[in-house]
Amino acid sequence: MQGKQDTAQPVAMTAQDAQAPGAGRRQFFRVGGLFAAGLAASSALAPVASWAGTPSTSTAQDIAILNTALGLEYQAIAAYQVGAESGLLQKPVLDVAVKFQSQHKAHAEVLSSTIGKLGGTPVMAKKPSEYGFPVASLKTQADVLEFAAGLEKGAASAYLGAVPQFHNKDLAKAAASIMGDETMHWAVLLGALGKDPVPAAFIA
Ligand SMILES: [Fe+2]
């Protein structure tokens, strides 16, 4: 039945999607029939699901989770901008930071697009100064790397918490894919700091 708001078409990620940085990635969160009738009536969002709260039971709650993720991505983009502009990062670390920022931009793009396709309103990015970053304490490259590593660890943890909260399993899969990327970022930054890049068998 097409009219049910929570019925989704399969949105499996293909290998091509996973490798293509452009159009393929934008199709990553294809949501097919999610927008059939009924969704518009849910503009009064149900209580927003927190990362660690009860599982979503509606598309509206999935949208809320996606918006939380989008906010985190915007925060990361801003953080890498601060790091890149600090003058403290030397090549090749600077190049790595810019690359990671571009991947966060890719995450934000698909999250925002998906929220829109689901009938939601994507949150907006703040100004870097509005995130309360500890800019004054960033005095060395290692300081910046520690700061970024902490955010990456937090992002991986946030996505880990989000995955089982989604009502739509395709969104859970997509979030798990991003979680993998965030975990790689964290590991690379730990390595750049001279720390064990894979400190444990599990992330939390
Ligand atoms: Fe990241």
Automatic annotation (TrEMBL):
Pfam families linked: Ferritin_2
Domain of life: Bacteria
Cross-referenced Gene3D superfamilies: 1.20.1260.10
Protein name: Ferritin-like domain
InterPro entries given in the database record: Ferritin-like, Ferritin-like_SF, TAT_signal
